[in-house]
Amino acid sequence: MTTFADRIIEFNKQLDFHGLLPHDIRIMNPYRENPLALTCSSAFYKKYYNDNNPRHLILGINPGRFGSAMTGVSFTDPKRMVAKCGIPFPGQMTHEPSSEYVYEMIEAYGGIQEFYSKFYIHSVCPLGFTIKSLKSKEVNYNYYDNTDLLKAAYPFIVENLEKQIAIGFETDVCFCFGTGKNESFLRKLNNEKRYFKEIIPLEHPRYIMQYKSKNKSDYIKKYLDAFKKI
Fold it and tell me: What residues does the Uracil-DNA glycosylase-like domain cover (predicted)?
């Protein structure tokens, strides 16, 4: 019998985007572009998901450059991968504020083993995007930031959201990181497709760290209270 680890790793390996992207927007596919990401994420999933325990989905927006684009694991930057998860990462030690918040929350929940035995974090759009800034540097870009991008990514999002659900996650409740456009898109899609009975939105970790860091403990409590509902 296959485990969650087996199915998640296969899901990541098959990710490939063939849509026509708007000018200056680039797809990020760490599982094909970065050998470290596939190796590291596979070790992570074999360590924490090598079973078939009931788990619920938590869906973020799309991967960012300094977190899952590096490690292949959502909201897990190289620093947290090494220090918290105990998995080697021989590449650049990038820092992502969202990852810092998520791992503080996980510690408050009861620790990594406890949290990952009940939840799986990924994204509405499982691959990320970048766009060139005015300084010609690539910056993170969200799937909903551009109408043409959303149109191009829509079939890919639907196909791979269905594949993620088919891995075997519970569908009574789905948690959504992002109480703005990400929630709005997911709710609209769910109203049409009926993937989940309920969607519970939570403020996105990046928003909390960027704008509400003084109230971080309040948001962690809000997360934990929400997770108690399942």
Answer: 47-228
